[in-house]
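Database export, one record per block. Field names are fixed; values are copied verbatim from the stored entry.
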Amino acid sequence: MKLLIYGINYAPELTGIGKYTGEMAKHFAKQGHQVEVITAPPYYPQWKVKKGYANTWKKETIDDVTVLRCPLYVPRKINGVKRILHEVSFLLSSLWYWIPRYFLSYDAIICVSPPFHLGFMALPHKWFWGTTVINHIQDLQVDAARDLKIIESKWLLSVLERSEKWLLKRFTRVSTISKGMEAKLQEKFSDPLETIMFPNWVDSKMIYPVSKEDSMREEWGILPADKLVLYSGNLGKKQGLEVVLHIANNLRDRKGLHFIIVGEGVSKETLMELKESLDLTNVRFLPLQPLDRLSEMLASADVHLVLQKKAAADLVMPSKLTNILAVGGHALVTADAGTTLHDVVSENDLGTLVPAENQALLQDKIDAILTGDLDGNIAGATAFAADHLDKQAILSTFLTNISDVNNGQQQPDTPTIHQVTTAKVLSPSTEMDA
């Protein structure tokens, strides 16, 4: 097939949506498909164009994929208005590549959301050529902007919500990464929306169990008897990471206990200022690690924090959980009963659960994990990752779905993180940076 992927994030970004989109395009090209990508220069999660890239139009080839880069506005400090300007600047600059492509045929176009409004560029191709246009939703961006109060203008939110609904009804199909997000999408319409389940995955050749001895503990100066609580990923508003520093402050006299926060994001500066104000010596901030060392990094931890605020429930899914499961780590997950994340973790013994935004209980559970009292909570983690998060199976099935939509056939069931061995479907970027 001849495929066009349209998204603001792409390889060589190491985390979030760009990582998954890059792996998807590479897989499609390896299967012999002709793949083009319209995207921006890599800038996430540092919110700074990566060294070696210019913020301009550029054509390059990566892993047999034709990558067309477009300039965009990259703000240093993020708020609702600046994010809108950031995304609109990409939409407008991408016209440079879109205009000639309206005269070319494709078998399918995949728009990766967020930003949700990329469909405005892709839908004319559907109208002119009858092209299959799939909107793949990694985060429910408009819902998150409203519920997390990133945008508080009722008028602006109303415009965004109406625009999103208008677009969603006009795509050939809408795909998303979890049953909870799918349910949120269906709530927006009186008639069912045609959806495809397309979850995130783990590359078992890159992410796998590593012993503590072969991890990064020694490199980080952590003794064999010491304990490490790790958060790795996006440092955004939706995670509520201030709680980690307050817990570290409460446990500052605990000898041999370390808290390490790895990553970048809009909240990093605020978090580092809080660390300084509390004078915490048991907390360290480290940059993102290379992908080929991710297994070593994750294997270093005794506790892996998977945090998000109540308002983010079922709007975004913490993609970091898939990697934690693949290395057999103990994930401490904040999720309320009834959410997709809570159901998947609890029904499959993938980690320890705590209600969102409950600092006291979160601290208690950290203590319990460190003493080994909750080891049984991760009994199913490694096997579940092997059975349900296989990269090859998930991407191959999505390709089949695209082909079947083109041919007017019903899509096959997709192997997902939401299925267990009894075939019961459970009710997991990527993450929106905010």
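Remark 1: Residues 2-201+390-406 form a domain with the Rossmann fold fold (CATH 3.40.50.2000).
Remark 2: The first helix runs from residue 16 to 30.
End of record.
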